[in-house]
Design a protein that fits this description.
CATH class of the largest domain: Alpha Beta
Mean pLDDT: 96
CATH superfamily of the largest domain: Nucleoside phosphorylase domain
Helix content: 25-40%
CATH topology of the largest domain: Rossmann fold
Number of domains: 2
Order of helices and strands: EHEEEHEEEEHEHEHEEEHEEH
Structural class: alpha/beta
CATH architecture of the largest domain: 3-Layer(aba) Sandwich
Number of strands: 15
Number of helices: 7
Shape: globular
Low-confidence stretches: none
Strand order of the largest sheet: 7-13-10-8-14
Length: about 280
């Protein structure tokens, strides 16, 4: 088995992985991922105790126990580029032997849950609700750089989205973990989440610069194929799902809806909505 070169898998002097600055012992079987670094503290405040903390760039990590269950909580920052770093290094921490630089024969499957915020694009999904993403639709190009295979149904839907919106590229579609959906998201709104490579123009927001696709929100909110409708915008889910599928991990993205784009509404107390989603998730894990 060939060794992974130092230039590809970068380790620090203390043996931790480069961006996350973590060692294998810091990764619990269940990992909670959040975009906002301050949200790590919002989660770990509920822990029985915190055994380890690490602050490195936007990647803040707390390891501890909640009602006796060991959890690792890590912030990723925003965007699919950060998710690629996070997922790649997280997988390396459990599936690569750092001493030999070889891939382990027996692979470990992690349970990874994203807790994030989102804006709904359907009028009947109110601010304050929770969406468990069944699918992530990637409006970014990350999956292009991997051998990510879609089912014929997924490929068909992605191509129809491209046609209906007039986008100059074909999105990709990736599915959640059915196991985690049953365990955590069973009574939440099951959604099909749009992952955008930005917060403004890629989500149809115009501030000063003109938009190439000014009707993007309308076109996406009206798109459907059978009973498949798009429900909300955010910036990470599709990348999580595509990489988790390729790596063999269980992954679920949970969204606290703090805006409704169709009604042009924004939550007056979005921290309360996020805190409720955090507590619900912790209890179900």
């Amino acid at each position: 088995m060939s060794k992974i070169p130092e230039s590809e898998l970068i380790l620090t002097k203390d043996g931790s992985i480069y961006h996350l600055n973590l060692k294998p012992k810091h990764i619990a079987d269940t990992v909670i991922a959040v975009g906002d670094p301050s949200r790590v503290y919002s989660i770990s405040q509920h822990f029985d105790k915190i055994e380890f903390e690490m602050n490195k760039r936007e990647f803040i990590t707390h390891v501890g126990k909640y009602k006796g269950k060991r959890l690792t909580v890590i912030s990723t920052g925003m965007g699919t580029d950060n998710i690629e770093i996070f997922m790649t290094e997280l997988d390396a921490l459990v599936n690569i032997d750092f001493k030999t630089r070889e891939i382990k024969k027996d692979k470990k499957k992690l349970n990874i849950v994203r807790i994030g915020t989102s804006g709904s694009i359907q009028e009947d999904i109110p601010v304050g609700s929770f969406i468990a993403s069944e699918y992530g639709l990637g409006l970014d190009t990350l999956a292009y750089f991997y051998n990510f295979k879609q089912t014929p149904k997924e490929q068909e839907i992605a191509e129809e989205v491209q046609k209906s919106t007039g986008l100059g590229f074909t999105p990709y579609l990736a599915k959640c973990s059915s196991k985690l959906m049953k365990q955590i998201g069973f009574d939440m709104i099951k959604g099909n989440t749009i992952t955008s490579p930005g917060f403004y123009a890629p989500q149809g927001r115009k501030i000063r610069l003109p938009l190439r696709h000014p009707q993007l929100v309308r076109d996406l909110s009206q798109f459907h194929q059978g009973d498949f409708w798009l429900t909300n915008f955010e910036m990470e889910t599709a990348a999580y799902y595509a990489l988790a599928k390729l790596m063999g991990h269980e992954m679920l993205s949970l969204n606290a809806v703090i805006a409704n784009r169709s009604k042009e509404e924004f939550s007056k107390n979005y921290t309360k909505v996020v805190d409720e989603l955090i507590k619900t998730t912790l209890d179900r894990l």
